[in-house]
Design a protein that fits this description.
Layout: E1 11-15, H1 28-37, E2 43-47, H2 55-65, E3 71-75, H3 84-88, E4 93-96, H4 101-111, H5 113-122, E5 126-130, H6 132-135, E6 138-143, E7 151-154, E8 159-164, H7 173-182, E9 189-192, E10 196-201, E11 204-210, E12 217-223, E13 226-231, E14 235-236
Parallel strand pairs: 1-5, 2-3, 2-4, 4-5, 6-8, 8-9, 11-14
Antiparallel strand pairs: 1-10, 6-7, 9-12, 10-11, 12-13
């Protein structure tokens, strides 16, 4: 059974980019996520489906989290797969790796993972991670799952609206989101720079925290036939992962 540390509080922390993949020696956002569990040694499980359980990504996860005060583990879906419900409901944090969101969701649905993740979320397990692991929780994600172009993708619907990561680091993201929103292809979109993380409690955005000085989050909404981009207030994090 899941721990009662966050019982009754549903947390999703969507990270726009960066995180331990870019800064393995300075895991500020990881420290912030672990602090939200209020556990002495939180259990953290990595799901790397979006990169086909790539060994390099898995090694990077363990090399980062074995240095932090937690108990890391992972679940494979391209090798012998354990009892997913038993493993995932016994975590404090579930980390979802980046990669191909469309392929990830297809594999998840075959294994019944969306229902398990929803139960875990409702029971207080924190859901988090970057890129595919950020957008998958929303109604819609803006993804590069298709080679050569960005497109909206129907996701899990735990959180309302749309989400786009890598807003400042990939040049096609900003114009694509503006086009999708202004044409009514996607609803109001939460856009996140690398180093920015949107912390939801329940289905409400509680705060945007950042590990980089210039990182921001934005609300991109339709007004008439145009898309209006509004920067959101941010909380800067110290190296400890705590707000400055």
């Amino acid at each position: 059974m899941p721990k009662a540390v966050n019982s009754g509080r549903r947390h999703i922390i969507a990270i726009g980019g960066g995180s331990f993949g870019a800064s393995p020696d300075d895991p500020i956002l990881e420290k912030y996520v672990l602090a939200q569990t209020r556990a002495r040694r939180p259990k953290v499980c990595f799901i790397g489906t979006a990169t086909g359980d790539a060994d390099r990504y898995l090694t990077l996860f363990y090399s980062t989290f074995t240095k932090l005060r937690c108990e890391p583990t992972h679940v494979p879906l391209f090798a012998r797969t354990p009892d997913l419900k038993k493993v995932l409901l016994n975590q404090d944090v579930i980390y979802v790796g980046g990669g191909n969101t469309k392929s990830m969701l297809a594999v998840w649905r075959e294994w019944g993972i969306p229902a398990i993740l929803r139960q875990a979320w409702r029971e207080g397990v924190i859901l988090t991670r970057v890129s595919a692991g950020a957008i998958c929780w929303f109604d819609v994600g803006v993804t590069d799952s298709w080679a050569g172009h960005l497109a909206p993708l129907e996701c899990l619907g735990f959180l309302p609206g749309a989400c786009c990561p890598h807003f400042d680091s990939e040049k096609d993201r900003r114009p694509a989101v503006s086009r999708f929103v202004s044409h009514g292809v996607v609803p109001t979109t939460l856009a996140l720079d690398d180093g920015a993380a949107a912390h939801f409690i329940g289905r409400t955005l509680s705060r945007v925290v950042t590990s980089r000085p210039k990182a921001l989050g934005y609300s991109v909404r339709r007004r008439g036939k145009s898309a209006i981009e509004q920067p959101l207030p941010v909380v800067r994090l110290a190296k400890s992962g705590r707000p400055r």
